[in-house]
Amino acid sequence: MPTYNIFTVLKQAEELLTSHNITEAKLDAEIMLCDVLNIERKILPTVREQIITNGQYTLYKNYLEQRTQRKPTAYITGNTEFMGLKYKVSPDVLIPRQDTEILVELVNDFINKNNRKKVLDLCTGSGCIAVSVAAYNKDVSLIASDISEKALNIAKENAESNNVSDRIKFIKSDIFGNINEKFDIIASNPPYVTEEEYKKLEKELYFEPKLALTADDNGLYFYKQISENAKKYLNDDGVIFLELNADLSREIESLFKNFASTKIIKDYSGLDRVLLIYN
Fold it and tell me: Among 1, 43, 92, 159, which residue has the fewest nearby CB atoms (within 10 Å)?
């Protein structure tokens, strides 16, 4: 078998992924190779001439084959980065998105400015919101809930690997079903994709759990449930942070008219991304 250095392997991988219309071909090629080599991406430029072993090359070819079938990179490697932390992921949970970091940053900012201590993360999935909030706020305690037992198991692992499991209680619950406390903050990135939108998604998204993506009532089901029930679980001066379906943002905001006030925060692309609801 011929020998290959890292530079050559990466170049071949990028060309292969590009030929299969993978949008982030270079990035994906680098992330997967770093996983195979067990190194950080920032190290790559310093090891360009390093020869990879036959075993590493075989594993990398397997990764690339999966990616050409449009399986998401995070599911291939089994992990991803979010808020500077490493998260385990599997097809039982949504892959954390950079857009959701905006929600976490807003929650962290609110905690820091208002000295809040108690947070509920609804539809926690991989646990990325709850774990990140706990990691950056040492005095906060959280409850993270999800209807999926498999998702909760992943979330618990992520809490343990990021050393915050002592401050997060995980509960299997259909929205507020098994929640019996009040909170200073309720945060959620709920399922919000409509059935019509689901039919038009990129191929990669069909590897992700449909239960965590789609919502009945034209994408509004979870927003309606939260708007109708959240007051019972929110302290008097509490705040709700919701990730938005940008196409339904005004419709979602109108559901919370019985609260004191609302505010929409845009993402880096100028799309409506997070709804703040003040009790």
Answer: 1
Tell me the C-alpha distance between 14 and 26, whole Å: 5
Token code pair at residue 146: 């999800």
pTM above 0.85, yes or no: yes
Mean pLDDT of the chain: 96
CA distances from 232 to 86, 98, 181, 270 (A): 34, 31, 9, 33
Indicate the length of the chain as a whole number.
279
Do residues 147 and 124 make contact, with C-beta atoms less than 8 angstroms apart? no
Bridge partners for 272 per DSSP:
266
CA proximity to 178, closest of 122, 117, 105: 122
SS3 177: coil
CA torsion 189-178-88-77 (nearest 10°) is -70
Q: What is the per-residue DSSP string for 210-260?
A: HHHHB-TTTTTHHHHHHHHHGGGGEEEEEEEEEE--GGGHHHHHHTTTTSS
Q: Rounded to an integer, what distance in angstroms lies between the CA atom of residue 215 and that of residue 126?
A: 18
Q: Cβ(93)–Cβ(151) under 8 Å?
A: yes
Is residue 3 predicted with pLDDT exceeding 90? no
∠ CA 222-274-194, rounded to 5°: 40
Q: Rounded CA gap, 273 and 279, in Å?
A: 20
Encode 91-100: b = buried (16+ Cβ within 10 Å), e = exposed: ebbbbbeebb
Q: For CA atoms 267, 271, 274, 279, give the dihedral sign.
A: positive
Joined tokens for residue 205: 């998204």
pLDDT of residue 262: 97
